[in-house]
Amino acid sequence: VRRVGPSVLLFYPLGFLVIAQVFLDGERRRKAESALASSRRKYKQLAESTEAILWEYDIQRDRWVYVAPQSERILGYEPEEWTDRQFWLERLHPDDREAALRDCAECELRGESRVLEYRFVRKDGRVVWLRDAANCILRQGRPAGLRGFMADITTRKQADERIRESEERYRSLFENSHAAMMLIDPKSGAIVDANPGACAYYGWTREQLLS
């Protein structure tokens, strides 16, 4: 050993450093992989704990790469049932299909975000309203996919519809009543609206009453 001591003395420390570096690199890689796995678990837990359906769509492969489990509870479809774009298209309400397709095309072509509201047919045949917020995924400056979430807004839409119908009924009664009816601001005393009956009774036009 001593006769070849110089070569051994040079080789041994070098080998030790190489082994140490490999060990450190492996340790860093394990920590990075562990951190990535932890991040994915947190993302998955977050995605599956919301009241919305998180999803991701690959434009190039024309397939859904992720649909959150809430899909089964909200829409009746298991995540595995979501295949290509046709699956989504066939379940869109016919009256909303054209607008939804146009917004999706704009999102893909321009790489922009879009918020869509459309009716969707559940697996049991019931129609629900969805609010779909989609973001374009860019790779090397080109649209590669879409990512977003769908939320069931049926209750809100139904409430909005009831309000609209109530306003229409009120307006109809207001406009068609022979009695003089006016809306007056309690603070200023100004007339903010008047029906034809009021105009006939006072002999003024609606514009004159409002002024």
In short:
The chain is of the alpha+beta class and 211 residues long. It has seven helices and seven strands, in the order H-E-E-H-H-H-E-E-E-H-E-E-H-H. The chain is elongated.
State the end-to-end CA separation.
112 Å
Query: Level of helix content?
Result: 40-55%
Residue-averaged pLDDT: 83
| Shape summary | elongated
Number of helical segments with 4 or more residues: 7
Count of extended strands: 7
Percentage of residues in strands: 15-25%
Judged by helices, strands and strand pairing, the structural class is alpha+beta
Radius of gyration: 32 Å
Strand order of the largest sheet: 2-1-5-4-3
State the main characteristics.
24% strand; alpha+beta; 7 strands; two-stranded antiparallel sheet; 51% helix; single chain
Describe this structure as you would to a colleague:
With 211 residues, this protein is an alpha+beta fold. It has helices spanning 5-47, 70-75, 85-91, 94-110, 154-176, 196-202, 206-210; strands spanning 52-58, 63-67, 114-121, 127-139, 142-152, 182-184, 191-194. The strands form two sheets. The chain has a five-stranded antiparallel sheet with strand order 2-1-5-4-3, with helices on both faces. The longest helix has 43 residues, at 5-47. It is elongated. The model is unreliable at 8-12 (pLDDT under 50).
